[in-house]
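okkk here we go again. third time trying to get the calcium ion bound version out, last two times i messed up the smiles copy paste (missing a bracket lol). double checked this time i swear
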Amino acid sequence: MKLTQTLFSIVLYLIGATSVTEAARKPNVLLLCIDDLRPELACFGKDYIKSPNIDRLAAKGRAFHRHYVQAPTCGASRYALLTGTYGPSGNNALFQRSRRVAKNPKSVPPSFPAWFRQHGYTTVSVGKVSHHPGGRGGPNWDDRSKKEMPGSWDRHLLPAGPWQHPRGVMHGLANGEIRVRAGQMDVFQAIAGPDSIYPDGLITEEALSQLDQLTKPEDGKPFFLAIGIIRPHLPFGAPKKYLDLYRNVDLPPIPHPSKPRGKTTWHGSGEFMKYNRWKRNPNNDAGFATDVRRHYAACVSYADAQVGRIFERLEEIDEADNTIIVLWGDHGWHLGEHAIWGKHSLFEESLRSPLIIHGPGMRSRGEPTSAMVETIDVFPTVCELAGLPQPDFVDGVSLMPILKEPSADGHPAISYARAKTIRTATHRLIVHKDGHSELYDHTSEHSETRNIAAEHPRIVEALRAEIDRRLDKDSDFAPDQNQLPAKPPKDAVMLFDGIKINRFLSMSGTAPDWPIENSELVSGRGKGRTNHLVSDLHFRDADIHVEFRLPEVGSGNSGIYIHGNYELQIFNSFGKAKVSQQDMGAIYGFAPPLTNACRRPGKWQILDIRYRAPLRDEAGQIVTQGAITAWLNGKQIQANTRFGEPRSKYHPYRYGTTPYLKNIWEQQKQTSIGPLFIQDHDNPVRFRNIWLRPLDAHTMTYHAE
Ligand SMILES: [Ca+2]
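finally!!
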């Protein structure tokens, strides 16, 4: 974390110099957060829902049909949106963060709006954007001394009107009715009247007034306006005209409506059941279930109408072409699927929500994408769209490649509540605190109704490891590279200690013939690519440390082959302005280094690598990609670079290979456990102090048959 903080402090210092006129050329940002909105919209393929305004946005932007939230509850999901990071699973997440800010402001990276504010934007929040509409704590959510997002917003607004205070607005029904006891408040309602008899009408009016103010600023700044619409959150109250849209609409049957058997994240729908339901239960009363679904749909159309009013105003004030628009649902909602009426589960219905992005530089506008993405990706994406520096403290990635090309790859999505889950293109794994696993195959007709964890232990293990890797934040890996030679940690295994070759063999499994000169191991003398060293220590995930010196003459073309397939290049790139996949610190075939950290030939250099192996299923197919984070000479050169099947034709299992190595490769494909190679190539490179620190229990000494 330390380095990240230093970096963002430096960035903060630098942007202090950004002039307002420069910032003024930047596009505005309009972030629309809709509460509890299912991806059940016309533009998401559900033609029985009337959502013409959101559809209009999808027609000119990109609808992400497989967007997953980090948490199936408002507060934790909004934390992920507003920080770009994985975070706590409770609704209090942002208030917890604000307490950390109060204690030590420098220890907390800026929020999504704060980043824009620091880069010359005016930032305004209206309605429910963070968990508490208006962004304040206290019993009625209006205590000015308890800020949910300190330093983030120029104005954090909520008009309470007849609902008295933000807490009243949050669960308000028509004409100022506020929730005192949930059992006395109807679970749905549709009173005739204008939009403003329900809270979102008022929120939208405030949002329109803010738009008017923000477009004629005296300071010439662009705006970042976030608007949070509360419906379709419970209670399902909206003006009658929206319910009328569904009077004669047949809703499709509820998919998989049975309560799941076995241990799952199913719950009793407490948030729904506590309202007045006229003693009816949608799980055993089909007519009531349809009523509930129609009122939910009415709330969606009501929310959509508010979105329409905002778009109309944006066009009237002539800012539509210069505004990045993001529409985001904070999570899904079960309308009877798995016999749940609510969110809070880790099933698909709770975790999938709409995401639509519209902005400059997109191609194939209006085409949806099925690339899998996460809420934490929104922050870096909007930065790239707006031309702001990328925040290096987020866990998400920019979705710009998918905005340019809808068929571009996404990535697995992580979510958490009482348990943790990962969704890949084909599977969902849910891991409970007691270790119980649910594994679902989304390519099967049974989908999330049949737990196949017991039949596929390899997939369970691979996906479990991926959850740990993502949430453990390998990005914080920052070895101490100030001392040379470095002192090995206590749990390191020395592969070469300067006295003898401790743990390396030749490519045939015999004693190696590399010379040791002055306690330094000297690589092959220009024979090239067929005399590598192979460790007899085999491992899965590990931290690897190597110190080396390039020859004064020649490229020093050597490298570290991890598991024989993934080569970190050792190649003289000193002083080169632009580095490629051939250069020092590149992962050959996958990624160039982030920066050129190569020292002058003849000087000692220090390389530390955190390696996560790709994991395979029973059939040898990669289930989770591998990942490398690496540091060279005090600079990060790889940050969680992902990789799958090997790409180099020169890797030692193929090029000049031996029966010994072929055996290792066959076993490695089954176990994801394999050796480290030091490459012999062209000009001799000198090595010292080579060690390995296993990160798991999958380490063994390999003996040839
Ligand atoms: Ca919500």
